[in-house]
Specification:
heterodimer; A: 446 residues; mainly beta; Porin; globular; disordered N terminus; B: 1059 residues; Multidrug efflux transporter AcrB transmembrane fold; outer membrane lipoprotein receptor (LolB), chain A; 13-stranded antiparallel β-sheet; 29 helices; 51% helix
Chain lengths: 446, 1059
Amino acid sequence: MRGNPRGCFRTPLIMICCFVQPALVSAENLLDEAEFSALLETRFGWETERDELQFGEAVFTPEVNMRLGESVKLNGIFRFRGDTEDRLEPGRPSEDNRDAISERAFVGDDVDIELRELYLDIDLEDAFVRLGKQQVVWGEADGLKVLDVINPQSFREFILPEFEDSRIPLWTVNAEIPVGEDSLVQLLWIPDQTYNDIPDSDAAFAFSSPRLVPRLPAGVTVLSTEFDRPNSFVEDSDAGARFTTFLDGWELSANYFFHYSDTPVTRRRLLPGGVAVTQDYERTHLLGGSFNNAFDDWVVRGEVGYSTDRFFITEDAGDSDGVVKSGEVSYVLGLDYQGITDTFLSAQLFQSFIADHEDGIVQDQVETSATFLVERTFENETIKLSLLVIQSLNEGDGVVQAELDYQLYSDVNLTLGADIFYGDEDGLFGQFRNRDRITFGVTVGF
Amino acid sequence: MIRENAFARRFFMAVTAFPKTVLFFSFLAILGAAAFLPLLNKDTTPDAFIAADNPAVIYRDKVKEIFGLDDPFVVAVIDRRERGIYNPVTLGLVQDLSEQLGKLRNVDPDRVTSLATESNIVGTEDGMEVDDFYELGTGRSLDPAALKAAIEDFPLYQGALVARDGSATLIVAEVIDHTLSQSTYDEIRAIVDASILPEGVEVHVAGEGAISGFLGTYIDNDATRLNPLTAVVITLVLVVAFRTFAGALLPNIIVLATAAAALGLMAAFGVSFFVITNGLLPILIGIAVADSIHVLSDYYELAVTHPELSRREVIVRAMQRMYRPITLTTLTTIAGFMGLFIGAEMPPMKYFGLFAAIGVTAAWFYTILVLPAAVTLFKVKPSNAFALNKSTDVYGRLMTRFGHIVLRHPRTVVAVVAAVAITGAVGASRVIVEESQIENFQRDEPIYLADQVMNQVFDGTNYIDMVVETPNREDLFKPDNLARIEALQRYAETLDGVQGSTSVVDYIKQMHKAVNENRQEFYSIPDDDFLIAQLFLLYSTSANPTDFEEEVDYDYRRANIRLNLNSSLYRSNREVIAALEDYVAKEFIDGGMTVNLSGRVYVNFHWLNTIGDNHLRSLTISLVLVWLMASLVFRSALAGAFALIPVGMSILLIYAVMGFSGIWLGVGTSMFAAIAIGLGIDFSIHTIDRMKELAMTGSGSFDERIAPLFPSTGRALFFNFAAIGLGFAVLTTSEVPPLLKFGVLVGIAVAAAFIASMAIMPALAKLLKPRFIWPEQAPHSDAVGLKPSSVKAAVAAIAMTGIALLAVAGKADAEDLPDGREIMQRVVDRDEGEWVTRTLIMEMTDRSGTTRKRETAAFRRYYGQEKRTVMFYKSPTNVKGTGFLTYDYPEADKDDDQWLYLPALRKVRRISASDRGDYFLGTDLTYEDMKKENKVALEDYDFTTIGQEKVDGHTTFIVEGVPVSEEIANELGYSKAVWRVDSAIWISREAEMWDVNGNPLKTIRSTEIEAVDGIWTVHRIHVENHKTRHQTLFRFGDIDYKSEIKDKVFKTRNLKRGL
């Protein structure tokens, strides 16, 4: 399954170069127009319960922006990451979930190299096309996903990092076509069959909650495990469309996305002497919409989505395969307040509803969570203090992320943070109750 | 008891069930309160002690405005040689120092007065001549002999500017901003130290300005040094008491929380940190530590006696037992401090009481929440101090022995205490109410010595100003009126302590003599108002017309008489002020003339006058409140009175110390009573509560039942006392006398309260067997302590007090010049082009000199009146790609639409329209400033043109804008703005803004103004914020008004595409 890491970049690069050729004036001009920048981030996380480092990372992220003629731009971002502890992704992950064109390269167990983004921006007077490996973000919610499901996510640090860093960019054709004065249609085609990175069972943030990992009855042996990822370039690609408009201060969107859910569905099959386990990905239609508007110091925003085919783990021993299929509606309502000088307050309510709920399903029919965010800057924005609380109202578990960021110089930031999980160990957040950590980082820009 | 305990148990089980949550929210609350700390404003000026609406202060400020009189810095040059100062070298020194002083940043160069700046009035053949004292020699040279003769012939200056024996002279300098007095004092000292002094010549620096300005910082610096030391000492006590890491750490966390709550709320409610607020910290530390000492003592004790129980169970049981006395002491301590809040008139004392009460509430709150949660969560090891094999340690045994003695000789104990009480009463009668700022310095401080010397050699550097007011202009030309002024002066000079006086009359007499060939018999008031007017006119033609500014106003309607006194002591000056007020009441009763008193001495008299009353009032209120509270919690008025005994003892003892050692009842010391009550009452409450419990549950004789009080509660109280007592003992190492005294007195108070509660209370209880401790019927376990309802009432009372405290704190809270509006209309109408593309570099420099730089590219386009702007960050890398888009609508009531693209989110985010007065992305310009680009919203201000001025060689109109309403002022963040508008290009070259409190806020300088594509364009804007001392430099480049900017650049979808 795993290809040559260099080879996996070659095909798309050649494609891009061919396309770009007419726009090239000369190699020299090209370099003149290129802008290089980079971030070097050193991070340490101290796991309080174990009293030892969870990670000690150096992350180097070079970026290039290049103008290739009047209406074409090339952008590329690489990421080199080394971790002294190797606990977040112990050894070399198999990367079965990734398409060959989106795999990472590994140097030893501790270093991974990834082409994060590489795309062309093509300005066609009114319309706009972004072609290549990129992130596409839909929706209005922060830290919660209803419509923001275009890109899969890496869960190596669960949901703690910024989504920018944890989203896995996909090779995508992204076209935006204005309609009238204030409206826009966006069309997506994603032939990249890469799905969520889920940590191995020996990783620091390995999933253990029964909502995510099915539990087999005691004494049952697993006879075989089978993993299957869609891999037909056209047939298995994802596609979506979004219409957005700006009306009387309201920004509205209607979204449709036909895609594979990024988490595999685990099914069991009873055989004499044990069970056979299969994992594969399932398609679903996502229909939804979003809105936002500002009133005085307040911003209200929200998004809603209906997925036709979702699969939920059930503990009903009589169930034939251990999962139940149902439609699911979920929505987020958010309220931001900026009426206090230098301060940003935000609260969000998230609810999901399983249409055909059955008793054995390990989560409630209606699940509610809330998030609360406070950010405040001091000393002319050199110091930023932020606090994010995500709380599940069904299970009572949650996570608190506090961070202090100090801009020492224009290009040097120091950060000090704490991530604290609490609640029942079966909960989505409570499963990491022993993973509380204190982080420290230095970021230098070039 | 059972029901109540069941409730307490449920509560503490709940607290310990979610220790992480409790700790998290507690820390959140600490951080929340601490987040306000940067807003805390220090006000160490003596004026802070007087309510701003006190008539004396209002009048003093008026005098300052009319006559420009202020508390000056005074530099004395003393020449102890035979000829005194009248020699070229010393006079040269005076001139030199005068010049250097005038150049200091904070010194008003026009208001430096010395021999080198003043003029002599002499008669000539054709009238009168006014010459500089330094130009009396031939060819306008300095002639010491002539100068000496002139001064001797000019009574006005004798004793005031020059010592009567000619051995010394003064240089008087007035400062512009008193809050900078400390640095000005240092600068003046540096100048003096750098001067080369001939043998026998001394230079001293003093004056009310120096003393007032310097005092606050002097005390504050010392306290800032000592308060951390207090924390260290208290931690040491904790280490000795518990000998565990947690035992030392946990109380410190409570301390941190308490201090954060008290100081954070002070900041949040805009209450300043005053000089005496320094005393608040050791008190809060002491109280916060005391609560935790009692809980932890019980915890460790239980852990030893019940090793089989879990940590959680042990702490829950300890809390069940201790929450009651802790709650009770909190309530009574709050009551004590509220006495200060209600009784005191001086704002710093009021707030001291209020925020001490708030701090105590916070300490209680954190003790009952954080302590059990922390003990449950962390591995709190058992303490060696409570090891099982020795049921108690040396401190416990010591207390046990002490208890034996007390219980064996109760009558002796009562007799000793009675003797102390009598001594205290005698001492109290000897306590003197007095305060003198200069006495706050150590005797060997240069400023103290200087003050001594000056008041010996000169007529005195303490001033009373008497303002004489007449009904009509030029009434002061009338000889009758001048004669009355002179009579008042002569009377004043007969009073003890008044060494001299100055008024306009002295000048008139001098001039009258001068125009009459300097004949002494003409040293009088001329009997002709026309001649008097002539004399003033004559003077003004040959000298600086502002020379009389300090003595008479521009209309000759009001005059000032300044009296020099050689003492700043309240007691001596009180007599002078009373005599003057009497005289004025008798002699100035007709409508013709009124006299009002002012000046530093008078203002100080006013607030010192209230110290004694304040003290008694707050003492009484505190005692009554504490008694009420103690009576309530013990359900017995007698028990309430009983609880007051140790407190009363400690107060009497302090009176004795003050009375016999001559410590004054001044600003700092007057608060000791309320503090002693607040701290001391805790000992009583713990003792009574435990005695009750022991008497009920124990068996045998009274002595047998009470005996366990000493090794358990007694030991805890001992460490409670040790922590607080030693904390205050640290203050005794202070170099500042008032802090030292404060430390000594409170230390004594706490010691006395501790000893009294351990001695007199058990002794009296044994002798009197009061019902509230020793019920006649056989005791039942459920009769012990408080009824459940009373605890609930107590908790409710704490909550109510907290709410009430917050509510109270919340209260505390020209000719031919074009019309200003026309000018600003032209500014607004200035062409800006339909669109513009440009780069903008922002360099932000903080007060330490660290500079941050941000480079952006910006686009702006008008759609009719609607303006759209978009800005992209190009560097630094960590914000690169950030985009900021604004639609600014012409309708005043329609908010802007704003979006922010954050590359970290890969998402365009809708943000609410920024408040106009908020600072734009960390710079020193507000969103409104940025949006208006060197223009203003005309509807926001009333404009007045106030003059013309050259800025960078360009003539500008000075236009003053005052926001049309308070609401607008608050929105903008400005109470006033002044623009200097270049009428050739209608751009403001320099603007100044004042904050809503009227303080200078910032200065905006626009330079490198050039025409680009025919449009006048500012290329460089420098903004300096005077409050934060933060600066921003905006540099605009690559400006292009010609290239059309496409519509799509201003669409949200474009934000994420970047440049």
